[in-house]
Amino acid sequence: MFLSSIKKVLVLSVIIIFGMLFTVSSVSAQTEMDMWTFVNAHAEFYEMMAENWNQENPDRAITLNTQVLPFNQMHDKLNIALQTGMGAPDIVDIEIGKFPGILENNAETLVDLSSVIDEYRDDILEARLAPYSTPDNKVYGIPTHVGTYLMYYNVDMLEEAGVSIDDIETWDDYLEAGKKVSKDTDGDGENDQFMLAVPSEEASAFDGMSRQLGSNYFDQDGNVILDREENIRTLKRLKDYVYKYEIADVVTDYHEQNFYNALNNEKYASIFMPQWYMIRFTDFMPDLKGKIRVRPLPAWPNGEGTLSTMGGGTGTAVTQEASDVELAKEFLAYAKLTREAGVKIWTDLGFDPIVTDAYNDESFQEKFPYFGNEKVMLTIQDLQSEIQPLYFSDLLTRLRDQLNEETLYEIFENGGDVEKNIKEAAEKLRAEQ
């Protein structure tokens, strides 16, 4: 009897030990992946998607170790790691402005993601892939959002001036509305309320209008096209808004607290920026709740161009140092290209996804009290067909510096000649190609 009890205990112990070993083995079977980003919310998003992936793919589970680093530090660290072949993460977020240079210098150390993207091409906005692709159509980064350009109107200011925002169909209509809205409120003889602010040290306004015309910085082959006629027209129009018609004020940029305060205090009746600027409104301009309406950009005269474009962005890449390249690719596609991912990019990050079917989810039908209780995402959905590809080259950082530090400042702050300044900038950049 005693020996029988001992046998039972021994058998039970063996079962428990094997069970523990099996559990340890299952955990250790997970593939570890390091992921770098410069945005806390992105890290949280990927961690959530890794949990979902593991639930749906227990036999291919991953342990995702996310690391959030300061913007410049992360991109510098990534460049060094890719160039030396040591210390790169499995997966990494790369900001759109940094992507072309990193890709140009390190294409052999990043992974072509075309094979996993091909499975989803019919269900995504393909034009958004262009900034993260090579001229031979290999894709090295998967976008986080579209960044649909929108016009944000302060409807109270416009209605007070007798303007209905739905009567603004073209940029000429916009100018006429601006003449009614812009005025001198303190009696000093100069306007201090405006239709628009034009930045002199960042290119958001220029980008939105020129990209409507299918132009901007580079063509598909990476050639500088900064001095194209469409770009000159855009800058002349913006400069005229400031100096000729006085419906626009000059500011440094759209991302400083002083500017948020000015919008919040109703110094400006409108601004056009990508969809992600909605978050700036709700976070930094509480007094505008219920006053802001979202609409397409005005059309260029004679129906030229489109009613929107794209702006900003992050491309997520896989490096050749990944512990399991194919698994990293498949997880990344799952986290950014599936319908579920598209919905969560909206519900958890607040961004307009590139996954077209996601817009059919009920969460996109939500009305926003801040934006006049309108279904904003339906407007954004309607604009997806207006988005054209956008091309960059490894000169993008240098070009941005040229525009932001010299060219735009000279045009908008000093009233410099548009054609002269933009052609000089283009020639400088071509000399570096």
From TrEMBL:
UniProt xrefs under InterPro entries: Bact_solute-bd_prot1, SBP
Keywords: Cell membrane, Lipoprotein, Membrane, Palmitate, Signal
Coiled-coil ranges from the UniProt annotation: none
Superkingdom of source: Bacteria
The organism of origin for this protein: Halanaerobium kushneri
Species lineage: Bacteria, Bacillati, Bacillota, Clostridia, Halanaerobiales
Keyword Signal tagged: yes
Name of the protein this chain belongs to: Arabinosaccharide transport system substrate-binding protein
Matching Pfam families: SBP_bac_1 (PF01547)
